[in-house]
Design a protein that fits this description.
This protein has four helices and 19 strands. The protein is α+β, with helices and mostly antiparallel strands and about 260 residues long. An eight-stranded antiparallel beta barrel has the order 1-3-4-5-6-8-9-10. An eight-stranded antiparallel beta barrel has the order 11-13-14-15-16-17-18-19. The termini are far apart.
Length: about 260
């Protein structure tokens, strides 16, 4: 009789414990929490709803989320601030500091102000959405992966060739450009000619293949032709920081500025 009573008491206590855990939200299905590793990295700001008006950004505004701090790149200025994560919410602290160059867009400056607050955060593959429902605020981000070069135009500013010692060439007033399409092709626009090549991307590396075609007008400079050669049968590592693009391998380092329209 005593044994039955003890077993019954054990079952009752186990049931109460399981019920308490379910109510307190500690079940395995609900235990996954947002953490900094999930949100760390570079993100493009796709759109913002300030609660009063909606804005779309065309890949000129991006944010780099680090551990407990972030860097925000506007069109002309850069900003820095702090954030924290708790219970699937991201809290952006007051006191965001920005450089004071001329001239940023009104919506870019507004974004740096709207950013302050406590946001519900939802992650879906390469998308991240922040919302403050009671204020009708929403910000959409896309992670800078294979989409970050799509339909972007860049102008070369500097080339460092490492093949025969280190030789630097600065492009001043020459306006040589590259344009990435959304079909894995790149157009290289020189002074007299232009070429189109195809490429593939794997992580932070771009592999360029033979040119699909080039015009044959006279006459491009030695540096222009050298630049053209780096976009055929080459693999280049790329890095984007704000409005700056760097392509590099063991033979060359190319620096570009984003063409803003």
């Amino acid at each position: 009789m005593k044994l039955i009573t003890i077993v019954g008491l054990y079952i009752l206590l186990f049931s109460l414990s399981a019920c308490q855990n379910t109510k307190s939200g500690t079940s395995t299905s609900d235990s996954k929490q947002l953490n900094t590793e999930q949100v760390e990295g570079n993100w493009f700001v796709v759109s913002m709803d300030s609660g009063l008006e909606k804005y779309d950004f065309e890949n000129y505004l991006d944010i780099n989320l680090l551990k407990k701090k972030f860097n925000l790149n506007l069109k002309a200025n850069t900003c820095g601030g702090k954030y924290s994560i708790l219970n699937n919410q991201i809290k952006v602290e007051r006191g965001i500091k920005c450089t004071e160059k001329c001239c940023d867009t009104p919506e870019g400056l507004l974004f740096s102000q709207v950013l302050v607050g406590t946001w519900d955060c939802k992650l879906d593959e390469n998308w991240m959405i922040w919302t403050i429902e009671d204020k009708n605020k929403e910000i959409k981000f896309i992670r800078q992966t294979d989409k970050q070069l799509s339909v972007t135009e860049w102008e070369i500013t500097r080339m460092v060739s490492k093949e025969k010692g280190e030789m630097e060439h600065l492009f001043e007033g020459e306006h040589y450009k590259i344009l990435f399409s959304n079909q894995n092709s790149v157009r290289v626009q020189l002074k007299a000619n232009h070429c189109v090549a195809s490429f593939t991307q794997k992580g932070d590396k771009l592999s360029f293949f033979d040119y699909i075609g080039c015009s044959k007008a006279c006459c491009d400079t030695k540096e222009a032709n050298q630049l053209k050669d780096y976009f055929t049968n080459q693999t280049l590592k790329f890095n984007i920081s704000g409005n700056q693009l760097t392509l590099s391998n063991e033979n060359v380092e190319l620096e570009f500025s984003r063409v803003l329209k």
